Each structure stands twice: as C-alpha cells, then as structure tokens.
C-alpha cells in the first residue's frame, strides 16, 4: 500500500509547526511519521512536534529544497523500510524553502511509487504584512499548494481576514482555502483518499539564491527575562524570524518558548514538564541585516554572562 505524503510549506513564522502538531494530535492512532526541516543548526521545530506515532526525523542546518535534498530522499527511503511502515508521512519544510524544488525531488520514480505526494498545504499568516503578497518566495509557496490554510485569523478583524482570503484565492484559484486558526483543519482535506495523488509538473530547477542566514545563541545558565525582552525590542526590526527556549532567572523551575514572527514577539511558559536545559535561540535575517557579533553583544549585555 502506498504511503501518502503531506508536504507543509509556508513563509517564516506562518504557523506550520502548530498546524502539524494539531494534525498529529488528531491522528487517532494512525502511524504518522514527521520529517521536520529547520533552517539552522538548532532544530527548534522538531522539539515542538509532539505525538507522531512513527517518530520525528530532524533535518537541520540547511534547506531541503537545496543543500539537504539528498538527505530528504534518504530519510524517506529509511522511513519506508521501517516495520511496520508508517501509514502517512508529513514533511514540514523550513520557511525559506521553495516547494517547487522539493516537489521535483518527490517526483523521483522510486519514491513516487512507494510514497506519492498527495497534498501540498501552504500555511498563510492572516496578519502578515500586505507586502508579503509580492514576495517571490511566498508566491511560489502559494502557487504550489492544493490547500491554503489561513492561520492566526484571531489577530485580525473579519474585514481584513476576508480581504486576505480573497487575495489568496486570486493568486491560486485551484487551491481549497480554509481558515485554520490554532492549526485546526479537517483531516479529510489533509489526507484525502489514498490513490488520488497526481504527478505534478514543475518548472526547471533554477539556481538557488542565498537570501537568508541564521544565527544561534546558546547559554547554559539562566538569563534575565527583562533583559531579554529589551534585546528583542532592539533586534526585532532587523529580523524576519526568531524562536527558541529560555531558562530565566525569574522562573528557575520552568522554561519559556520564545517566538518572533511578522514583527510580533510572544513568550509563553512551556506547558510540558521539562527540566531546564539552557537557553537556545535561532535568529533568522536577510543577509547583511545583522551579524553574529551584534547578537552576541546584545545577549551578553542582557544576560550578564558569556554565551557558549
């Protein structure tokens, strides 16, 4: 029996991991393997995925549409050799990935026969700036999709949400559009009846253009929450995305999950029982906008100790 693949794409901070988690939480015992690609040496998203019956495979420090494409095919081959085999595979791409290149790789005849690409789902942040609709990478993600899932609708008013949905439908008229605030989405749309997969025509591979870069900050000791919030305020205008885990002086027995996307920063206590393991944050910016020295200096001033 072929194992269907769900490819989840979407721009940086759109809410892909939240949606994948909701799918896995509602799998009702179905064996689903999750392959998570994070653009950075620390794969934060893989740690946030919970409930995959057939495990989570992490592909970090690169993008599966270019530098890690061989790793993706090897990963899928390994998953398909497991006993028992997964009943479905979810691939969560990094926010900088062009799905056209990933789809081309998934059309490999050997992979296609065993694990056909059933659905391409693009997660779209309803509150993202209007200028994003002109971004070439974002447009490629939209146009590749069979299903457009509009996230974070609770952050905008109804008129703005309706206007965003109209704009998305005009860009990709063939895709089904659903609101998916909180990651909620009908599973019959995500995993249609097996056998409905269609081979896809993709454009010729184009030379990759380096546009984004990542920086990491790690520390083995707690940091000041107030100091960190000041750092975020200073760095945010030069970042397109940041995320990670914090151990803080103010909360020595717990941890925080930090997220920055679309200029909005959130800091929330982790709702699972997990011991302190140090602060680990990934910062993503357009090339030339910020340096590792900038981040190190800011974080050292905020925390009062040297990063590791």
Which CATH top level class of the largest domain fits?
Answer: Alpha Beta
Please name the CATH topology of the largest domain: Rossmann fold
Major β-sheet strand ordering: 3-2-4-1-5-6-7
Q: Shape, please?
A: globular
Q: Please state the second-level CATH architecture of the largest domain.
A: 3-Layer(aba) Sandwich
- CATH level 4 superfamily of the largest domain: P-loop containing nucleotide triphosphate hydrolases
Total strands: 12
Largest sheet: 7 strands, parallel
Q: What's the mean pLDDT score?
A: 84
Order of helices and strands: EHEHEHEHHEHEHEHEHEEEEH
Termini distance? 48 Å
Domains (count): 2
Strand content: 15-25%
Q: How big is the Rg?
A: 19 Å
The low-confidence runs, each spanning 5 or more residues with pLDDT under 50, are 60-68
Output the number of helix runs: 10
Which class of secondary structure composition applies to the elements?
Answer: alpha/beta
Instruction: Tell me roughly what share of residues is in helical segments.
Output: 25-40%
What does this structure look like?
Keywords: Chaperone, Hydrolase, Nucleotide-binding. It catalyses: GTP + H2O = GDP + phosphate + H(+). GO terms for molecular function: hydrolase activity; nucleotide binding. Belongs to the SIMIBI class G3E GTPase family. ZNG1 subfamily. This is Cobalamin biosynthesis protein CobW. The protein is α/β, with parallel strands linked by helices. The chain folds into two domains: 5-190, 3-Layer(aba) Sandwich (Rossmann fold); 212-303, 2-Layer Sandwich (Hypothetical Protein Yjia, Chain: A,domain 2). Helix content is 29%, strand content 24%. It is built from ten helices and twelve strands. It has a seven-stranded parallel sheet with strand order 3-2-4-1-5-6-7, sandwiched between helices. It has a five-stranded antiparallel sheet with strand order 8-12-9-10-11, covered by helices on one side. Strand 6 (147-151), helix 7 and strand 7 form a beta-alpha-beta unit. Helix 9 packs antiparallel against helix 10 (292-303).
